[in-house]
Amino acid sequence: MFDIARIFENTGSEMDISCEMSPESTEGLKGIAFVRPPSLTGRVRNCAGIVTLSYTAGGTVVSQCDRCLKDISREFAYSFEHVVVRSVQRDNDEYIVAANDELDMDSIAVDDVLLELPTKTLCSEDCKGLCPICGADLNISACEHSDPAGDRV
Ligand SMILES: [Zn+2]
Ligand SMILES: [Zn+2]
Questions:
Q1: Hey, which of 30, 58, 116, 141 would disulfide with 77, CB 3.0 to 4.6 Å?
Q2: Is 6 exposed, middle or buried (0-12, 13-18, 19+ CB in 10 A)?
Q3: Per residue in 97-151, pLDDT tens?
Q4: Do residues 103 and 129 share a domain?
């Protein structure tokens, strides 16, 4: 939690944000495993009375290839920007509300990162996958169920 009361109160002020997502907060993310909690770095600033948060979430995820089930680790860095307000605005529900002037980076980042993470994962575009009959990894070797041309029978 970051207390940003002084940012709301002082036009032109800014504050650096640097933290890690808590391990608990990443548990609900589509069953994707993080090698370590993603780091969040950025800045909150009050520009002419409008408070904006811009930050980058970076880390490494491990997920399974949808075809061959191999674990793939991949680095990511996603950048986000939001307008932050002190209370709910009727005309715009895309703003982030800082209840009690506190910025809950965990919950903000969970929502943001969830939208960016790909729903499909392939170890490579031409992954051959597993044989549906014997389960052999066809990237490594053909099995008796696949013909030499590569078409599965
Ligand atoms: Zn694969
Ligand atoms: Zn087979």
A1: 58
A2: exposed
A3: 999 999 999 999 998 988 888 778 899 999 999 999 999 999 999 899 976 555 5
A4: no
Q: Which amino acid is located at 72 in the chain? A: I
Q: How far is the CA of 125 from the centre of ligand 2 (A)?
A: 21
pTM given for the model: 0.79
Q: Ligand 2 centroid vs 151 CA: distance in angstroms?
A: 12
Contact in structure between 34 and 58 (CB atoms under 8 Å): no
The domain tally of the chain equals 2
Ligand nearest to the CA of 125: 1
Mark whether 138 and 95 lie in a shared domain.
Answer: no
Q: Which ligand lies nearest the alpha carbon of 121? A: 1
111 with 129, same domain?
no
Is the domain of 9 the same as that of 72? yes
The radius of gyration computed from the CA coordinates of the chain, to the nearest angstrom, equals 22
Residue 68 Cα to ligand 1 middle (Å): 4
